[in-house]
């Protein structure tokens, strides 16, 4: 039987590859973006409580009402934005589903979608599976900021959607008010929508504020904002996210969501609703992760790498271009095997796989593991 693949260029992701290699080699896994520590035991107890209470059947398609209400409360507290929890908040099975459902809801055959390059690996496949055409706009190195003249020149009559990610993975760049205002100016007179991946919304550093697209009056009316409890509360394995969008966009989004997963794990939703009732549990995240970023960056000063501390996310990029011409993939594999520290080569995030001699490390790990990894990295020879 012959099968014509819809994604012929797609193989096993680098995250799976590097995590498996780290496991096989007994290396410290600073590659895949998941916390190396458990969630708050209180959250586990809440799940158990709701399971024992018999809340184990299908949740409503859009999410249990109390969780949607708590998301709306959080949005008001953090961003000063009022959302209708019934018509503008949808709970989904992870931010990846939210992104796919949003793209599927609005992208049709031949539509062009602007992506900022490098981009997280689930964006382009979602576009292509829906008949869309990815249009890659390179970010400006070394800080990975947006070149708005390039964005303007990339917009055409076929542009239907622009996908953004702030704080950005892999670079950690955090969008500014000027970024939001410029984007709004570019699209306000055009029939262009936005998907905004904001899964690291609570992980910003050095006093930087995450500016959700919800906070901009022009952008809010045409944006799907995708968030993740997995990133926020260290429960990536739960795969629970959400989509915030105005009524008309939410209606189209839910048409897709109901045929992807229909609903998301019920007791987990009730547990998260209870947990969100104490805002300090997410408001303290910037300080929590900044300590880890600072610890990691302080240790990196004793390595041969060059770097600028990340503005947000739980990733730190390092450059070795001044030391070696070895490919980033080969170096990532070699460091995993030879010194026992796994990372991600960021060429995999670029549409053309261009190698800028940069590795990405995840510092969302226990401090002893970070210190051990830094000790190994300080002894490398390139």
UniProtKB/TrEMBL annotation:
Q: Name one GO cellular component term.
A: cytoplasm
InterPro entries referenced in this protein's UniProt entry, alphabetically: Aminotransferase_I/II_large, Kynurenine-oxoglutarate_AT, PyrdxlP-dep_Trfase, PyrdxlP-dep_Trfase_major, PyrdxlP-dep_Trfase_small
Record bears the keyword Transferase: yes
Origin, by domain of life? Answer: Bacteria
> What SUPFAM superfamilies does this protein's entry cite?
PLP-dependent transferases
Q: Which UniProt keywords apply?
A: Aminotransferase, Pyridoxal phosphate, Transferase
Q: Which Pfam families match?
A: Aminotran_1_2
The molecular function terms in GO held by this entry are: kynurenine-oxoglutarate transaminase activity; pyridoxal phosphate binding
What's the cofactor? pyridoxal 5'-phosphate
Q: Does the keyword Transferase apply?
A: yes
- Where does the Aminotransferase class I/classII large domain start and stop, copy by copy? 28-374
The record, for PANTHER family, names: FI04487P
Q: Which family does it belong to?
A: Belongs to the class-I pyridoxal-phosphate-dependent aminotransferase family.
Q: What is this protein called?
A: 2-keto-4-methylthiobutyrate aminotransferase
Its organism's taxonomic lineage begins at: Bacteria, Pseudomonadati, Bacteroidota, Cytophagia, Cytophagales
């Amino acid at each position: 039987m012959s099968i014509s693949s819809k994604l012929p260029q797609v193989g096993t992701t680098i995250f799976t590859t590097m995590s498996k290699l780290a496991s096989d080699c007994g290396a410290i896994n600073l590659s895949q973006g998941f916390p190396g520590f458990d969630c708050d035991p209180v959250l586990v107890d809440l799940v158990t409580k709701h399971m024992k209470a018999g809340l184990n059947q299908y949740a409503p398609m859009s999410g249990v009402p109390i969780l949607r209400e708590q998301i709306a409360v959080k949005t008001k507290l953090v961003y000063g934005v009022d959302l209708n929890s019934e018509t503008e908040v949808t709970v989904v099975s992870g931010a990846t589903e939210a992104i796919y459902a949003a793209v599927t809801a609005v992208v049709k055959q031949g539509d062009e979608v602007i992506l900022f390059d490098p981009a997280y690996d689930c964006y382009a496949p979602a576009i292509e599976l829906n008949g869309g055409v990815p249009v890659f706009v390179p970010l400006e190195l070394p800080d990975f900021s947006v070149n708005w003249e390039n964005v303007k020149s990339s917009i055409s009559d076929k542009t239907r959607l622009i996908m953004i990610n702030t704080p950005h993975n892999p670079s950690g760049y955090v969008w500014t008010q000027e970024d939001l205002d410029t984007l709004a100016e570019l699209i306000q007179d055009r029939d262009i929508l936005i998907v905004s991946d904001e899964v690291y919304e609570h992980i910003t550093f050095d006093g930087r504020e995450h500016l959700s697209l919800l906070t901009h009056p022009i952008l809010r009316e045409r944006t799907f904002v995708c968030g993740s409890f997995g990133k926020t509360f260290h429960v990536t394995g739960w795969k629970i996210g959400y989509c915030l969008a105005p009524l008309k966009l939410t209606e189209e989004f839910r048409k897709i969501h109901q045929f992807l997963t229909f609903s998301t794990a019920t007791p987990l939703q009730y547990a998260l609703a209870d947990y969100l009732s104490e805002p300090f549990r997410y408001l303290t995240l910037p300080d929590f992760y900044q300590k880890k970023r600072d610890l990691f960056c302080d240790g990196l000063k004793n390595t041969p790498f060059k770097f600028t501390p990340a503005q947000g996310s739980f990733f730190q990029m390092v450059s070795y271009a001044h030391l070696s011409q070895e490919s980033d993939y080969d170096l990532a594999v070699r460091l995993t095997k030879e010194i026992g520290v796994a990372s991600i080569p960021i060429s995999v995030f670029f549409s053309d796989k261009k190698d800028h001699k940069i590795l990405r490390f995840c510092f969302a790990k226990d401090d002893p593991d970070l210190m051990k990894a830094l000790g190994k990295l300080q002894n490398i020879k390139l």
